[in-house]
């Protein structure tokens, strides 16, 4: 055994005795392997880019460095590289048939495009990512059930499918099935109609891993929830794993049976937040690489800044690429700037003062007539000033026109509102965020 292997094996044995002391990297240790060891550095190979990014960006590397340094008795730096470990080759009988992985993905409801390799990690989803990695290392024993919740396009489905794909790649004999909540409902209804419920139960109750996407769709359906309750219990009792996704936590799903709510809350529930600017940039670069689209980092940042919906990012990238295709091989910053400038003009031309008023009032849940009225109550002052500010900034209306539209006596009120909101958004991040959301909603609605 080499010095490198000997050192690593001793290290793994030593920290296994006190695994709770290392909450970040210990659950992921099986996905690391030693590559090189020098006097002051150890190079560790990661199974995929997502794992490397997670450990590099978070506390994992520092926790790992401290533990390895303790083992070595001196300071050892950790360098992380993407280097999947070699799998032991097995001789396969000449006539042995193994279905292609793509066939297995299809049968199990998984999609080949979802994996840990192309999942970008940031502070908004790193807990969910770490939990997913932990589940792959302890299927049925770690975080069971694992419950992801959050809005549209935050990566719930991607992570859940990545777990299934990883497990299937490791062992094609595992019984895995991914299904949306409405598919489970439809299959149950059909089995009752066709008097084939025993076959339905055989399909679901002996699985090693069941992933139900948008599980909130079974709420309010008594027979479906009863069947799912027994399915849930059967899989757990046989040592299987369950992963669920929803748009809200179990406690907030209306119409969900109490016994299911209790079981859904019995594992780990993780809130996946909307992607921040850095994560959207990373997602965009990953999408560009997958589609062989060349784009520089500054252009990617501009797209991520302008498009907050992670699902719309890919569409925007493809639309922009179609504009430059045939003229140049790479998307450059000027191309992105021109694209958004033209798009902004097209949208602004469609926006009316009434659209601005309606959008702001909807956001703050106030009546349009009240904003146009004379009341100066605190819940109306800010919305009224934001309407004035947006009419100036987006529609370039004159002060007098805005005053007339909002039934104000003169333009000084509008001038004061514009200056106040300009100051507020530079000092108060919450006001700046509200303005961004309102503007985005305004342009999307038109």
Q: Report the count of strand segments.
A: 10
CATH homology superfamily name of the largest domain: P-loop containing nucleotide triphosphate hydrolases
> Which architecture name of the largest domain does CATH use?
3-Layer(aba) Sandwich
Q: Classify the beta-strand content into a percent band.
A: 5-15%
Gyration radius (Cα, Å) is 27 Å
Low-confidence stretches: 87-97
Shape: globular
User: How many structural domains can be distinguished in the coordinates?
Assistant: 4
Elements, N to C (H/E): HEEHHEHHEHEHHEHEHEHEHHEHHHHHHH
What is the CATH topology classification name of the largest domain? Rossmann fold
**Helices and strands: which structural class?**
alpha/beta
Strand order of the largest sheet: 5-6-7-4-8
If you average the pLDDT, what whole number results? Answer: 86
Q: Distance N terminus to C terminus? A: 67 Å
For the record, what CATH class of the largest domain applies? Answer: Alpha Beta
Helicity level: 40-55%
Largest sheet: 5 strands, parallel
Given the structure, what is the number of helices? 20
Molecular structure report:
With 446 residues, this protein is α/β, with parallel strands linked by helices. Helices cover 55% and strands 10% of the residues. The protein contains 20 helices and ten strands. The strands form three sheets. The protein has a five-stranded parallel β-sheet with strand order 5-6-7-4-8, with helices on both faces. A three-stranded mixed β-sheet has the order 1-2-3. The model is unreliable at 87-97 (pLDDT under 50).
